Amino acid sequence: MTLQVPEELENDHDETVRLIAAKLYESGKLTLGQAAEMCGMKKWDFAEILINYGVHYFDSSATADLNDFNQSSGK
User: Fold this and answer.
1) Which residues, 6 or more positions from 30, have their beta carbon under 8 angstroms from its beta carbon?
2) In this structure, are residues 41 and 17 in contact, taking their beta carbons and an 8 Å threshold?
3) 3-class SS at 20?
4) CA-CA distances (angstroms) from residue 48 to 7, 13, 22, 36?
5) Taking CA 32 as the corner, what is the angle to CA 28 and CA 35, rounded to the nearest 5 degrees?
6) What is the model's pTM?
């Protein structure tokens, strides 16, 4: 997907992508993993980014992600 943004935002490309990913996660359009991937980050690193935007990350998709993690790690 290509998103055309004002030139002023191009200088802050990474920040713009993080904001969009956070808001898509908040609205339920992306899972935590998908939003993290959009930013080129690991899920748990992206969860910290959500705090900067006031987005609560412990919801049903985060719970599912945590269950997946626990199952894959043998817990």
Assistant:
1) 21, 24, 38
2) no
3) helix
4) 27, 18, 11, 11
5) 85
6) 0.69
Q: Which of 62, 23, 18 has its CA nearest to residue 36?
A: 18
pLDDT tens, residue by residue, 12-60 = 888 988 999 999 999 999 999 999 999 999 988 998 889 888 888 665 5
Q: Could you tell me the two tokens for 9?
A: 């935002």
Cβ neighbours of residue 36 closer than 8 Å, sequence gap 6 or more: 21, 42, 43, 45, 46, 47
> What angle do the packed helices 13-26 and 43-52 form, to 10 degrees?
90
Q: Do residues 34 and 4 lie in contact, with contact meaning Cβ atoms separated by under 8 Å?
A: no
Task: Considering only residues 61 and 47, tell me which one the structure prediction assigns the higher pLDDT.
Answer: 47
